[in-house]
Design brief:
Layout: E1 34-38, H1 66-78, E2 83-87, H2 97-105, E3 112-117, H3 122-132, E4 137-140, H4 146-153, H5 158-170, E5 176-182, H6 191-200, E6 204-209, H7 217-222, H8 227-238, E7 241-243, E8 253-258, E9 264-268, E10 281-284, E11 289-291, E12 299-301, H9 303-307, H10 312-324
Parallel strand pairs: 1-2, 1-10, 2-3, 3-4, 4-5, 5-6, 6-9
Antiparallel strand pairs: 7-8, 8-9, 10-11, 11-12
Helix pairs in contact: 1-10, 2-3, 3-5, 6-8
Bound molecules: S-adenosylmethionine and iron/sulfur cluster.
Length: 348
């Protein structure tokens, strides 16, 4: 069901990265300056497309401590990473999250720290997070209907998410983006009401294609709604979508606007239209692995060397080498489904 990728699907050769000075690059010449950090694999929801209800989470001792995470952030920043996104699991349930955000924001070289959250705890945390220096929030909300929200998240209370979004607005955290994964049989009929929010609000409403990972991949593959289908649903009801000029090629969401709208609508088409050429990111999992591509299982362990007392210079070399080997193109068209983690264990 996956279309072919019209991109180079070659794997970089497994040799040490050549010694090069300056900011992080990979073997394809992409400049890598964006690190997404999962603060925890645990979550206070169990979205049907993300994890099974009986999901078990890693014990705290297997997760990076704050000091270990900050050491990695300092190394990444020294190698030219300027932008960090905190995710999870649910990042807001990590103990001490506000202090951790403050410390990451204060790291020399880091210019922007943003977060992706389900919003349940934002009513209490938006203001302290804003004061700690958080710039940019993506809140996942797949429906405006409380009953459907409970069905998708298994027990979530949509009112709390809206209270959280209101708190984020009051705290002036910008940009504010709402993310919706479109899942057949759960929320295709919510696409239009969600898109309509962009007319009166300056929000970015982004529709994400479902990606297959791990043990829930079968369900995920059956429930995919392509961005093209989502876009057609919106345009049939709300009129044409106009491309927004000045699209930053590293932003996976291609931005559009409805006539007269304050906000934008974006489509993240990882499955049907991969955006590998503009990819500037890598990921750090809560258990200390660098993941170079969301949809490729190859990972590089940082936790073990850190706990074995490696030097900053050694950590530097491991990160540089890992990034050099960042792959190009996912393997979904060839039926290669990432197996070792679910989305909640990577961070999206
Ligand atoms: N818990 C936070 C949240 O829900 O925003 C952060 C972590 S969550 C894994 C990050 C994003 O990944 C969310 O927008 C979520 O909807 C999305 N996501 C989860 N599973 C997915 C899947 N199989 N395919 C595509 N997106 C997925
Ligand atoms: Fe939790 Fe986010 Fe996954 Fe939903 S999508 S179960 S909120 S990690």
């Amino acid at each position: 069901m996956w279309p072919p990728i019209d991109l180079i699907a070659a794997e970089p050769r497994e040799q040490p990265a050549p010694r090069y000075a300056g900011p992080l690059r990979d073997s394809f010449g992409r400049r890598i300056n964006y690190l997404r950090i999962s603060l925890t694999d645990a979550c206070n929801l169990r979205c049907v497309y993300c994890m099974p209800e009986e999901m078990r989470f890693r014990p705290r001792a297997e997760l990076l401590s704050d000091d270990e995470m900050l050491a990695i952030v300092r190394v990444a920043a020294s190698l030219g990473v300027t932008k960090i996104r905190l995710t999870g699991g649910e990042p807001t349930i990590r103990p001490g999250v506000v202090e951790l955000v403050r410390a990451i924001v204060a790291t020399p070289g880091i210019e922007q720290v943003a977060m992706t959250t389900n919003g349940l705890l934002l009513a209490e945390l938006a203001e302290p997070l804003a004061r700690a220096g958080l710039r940019g929030l993506n809140v996942s909300v797949d429906t405006l209907d409380a009953t459907k929200f409970r069905r998708i998240t298994r027990w979530g209370d949509l009112r709390r998410v809206w209270d959280g979004i209101a708190a984020a607005e009051a705290a002036r955290i910008q940009p504010l983006k709402l993310n919706a994964v479109v899942t057949a049989g759960f929320n295709e009929d919510e696409v239009v009401p969600l898109a309509r929010l962009s007319i009166a609000r300056p929000w970015h409403i982004r529709f994400i294609e479902l990606m297959p990972l791990g043990s829930v991949a079968d369900f995920q593959q059956e429930a995919v709604v392509s961005s093209q289908q989502t876009r057609a649903l919106i345009e049939a009801e709300l009129g044409p979508l106009y491309p927004v000029a000045g699209h930053d090629g590293s932003d996976p969401a291609r931005p559009y606007r409805l006539a007269g709208a304050q906000g934008q609508i974006g489509f993240i088409s990882t499955v049907t239209e991969p955006f590998c050429a503009g990819c500037n990111r890598f990921r750090l999992t809560a258990d200390g692995k660098l993941r170079l591509c969301l949809l490729r299982d190859r990972e590089v362990d940082l936790l073990t060397p850190l706990r074995n007392g490696c030097t900053i210079g050694e950590l530097n070399d491991i990160v540089r080498n890992a990034v050099w080997h960042k792959p190009w193109g996912h393997g979904l068209p060839e039926g290669e489904i990432p197996q070792i983690r679910l989305m909640s264990q990577i961070g999206g």
